[in-house]
Amino acid sequence: MHSFAPEILLVTILSLVVLSDSISARLKIPSVFLLLIGSYLIYTYAKMAVPIDLKLYFDTVILFCIPLIFMADALHLHFSDIKKHGWSIFYLAVFAVALSITAGASLYNLDLFEGLTLGAYVSLFAINMATDAVSVQSVLSRFHGISHDIKVLIEGESLGNDATAVIAFFFIGLPWMMSGTIDAGDATMDALRVFVVSIGLGIAFGYLFYMLMKLIDDKRGELFIFIIEAYLAYLIGEHFHVSGILTLITAIIATKAWIDIDMKSLKDVSEKKSKTFLQKLRLHGIDPTTSERMEYIYEMAKEFGYIAAVVIFFVLAEMVSLEKFWEYKTEILIMFVVTTVIRALSMAKFAFWGNKVKHIKPVGFEGWFILTFSGMKGALSIILVHMIPASFEYKELFEVVTTGVVILSIFVYGTTLWAYFTFFKKDEEKKLFSH
């Protein structure tokens, strides 16, 4: 007899998405709340609707979902926005995350989590400082009055934040935690190697697929080119033992940047008359796509990424154990409060530098508030904590604490933003930056 488990699971996931979106639109609440609650209720009271043990096939599920999630996020960054806010994004995504992980690890001296080594603290905070763009966008998309600038910072920070957290976890925290010792110089050089090689591979992939886009002349084919690029960039990056996520993000952003440059050039008559060396290198004059087709690609990529994130939420729901949450309630609350305070201080420092450094734009109090509470955790944190070897003595602590922090961050941060935009912010959308 045939098994219809895959079909049943697909129907369950799509039905939950449709129902969550419908209720969310009527009640004007973020759909991610309903997705999390719905996933848990289905796993608890309607197990027949999920006939496949997703946790058993976690690695396969993750490998399938990661490229779709990050491709969708990367496509939303425009080259003009990266040029304008590049230093701000770099601070938020790299410098601030590194400082946050360091600040969290320094709490080792206070012995907040009994028995954990310094390397374990680095790993734990690398896992729990990673933000989730899907959760953030699900919440913020319901609100009006958020400027384009803040959306760019949130999207850019989320993508770069994830890449930084992955490098810190896999190439510093995890080896340190499992071996008990690490050479700081070697670890730093290895992290820099991974950063540089990942970006280099990503740029090469971005150029290759940008040129391939010139051979395609329909929106569906172009969408599939981006999907192929995302999967290949991720797999090649992992194959060469660097960051597949950073390689993927760089590749998609690079391809998209060259497309943006071509589209801008179409409006510049002078660029059509004379070609520079770089324009010739890009085969300027052979356009890779159109703005109308890119809009289609944006929408479809967003939907693919959303469905992939829902699958991750289903795995998260299966990992939820109320008994374990109660057992580790103190550790969960400590981790949630500490990561929230660290993020608030990190964003406050960003706001301070905005008034002192010309390359970083000032964001003001409102920008600090939104950036602080847009630090919701999600799919990547669950992915990273799962990658810890089963032999690690405190893996259960890591899993329960991380799952609890993910859920708390989504509901507490999301509710805070929802309350602010629903009851307190009444003025029309305005520019975030004062100059």
From TrEMBL:
Keywords: Cell membrane, Ion transport, Membrane, Sodium, Sodium transport, Transmembrane, Transmembrane helix, Transport. The keyword Ion transport applies. This is Cation:proton antiporter. It comes from the Bacteria. It comes from Sulfurovum zhangzhouensis. The chain crosses the membrane at residues 56-77, 89-108, 161-179, 191-213, 242-259, 303-320, 332-353, 365-388, 400-421. Residues 15-417 form the Cation/H+ exchanger transmembrane domain. It is found in: Cell membrane. Pfam families: Na_H_Exchanger. It is a multi-pass membrane protein. The keyword Transport applies.
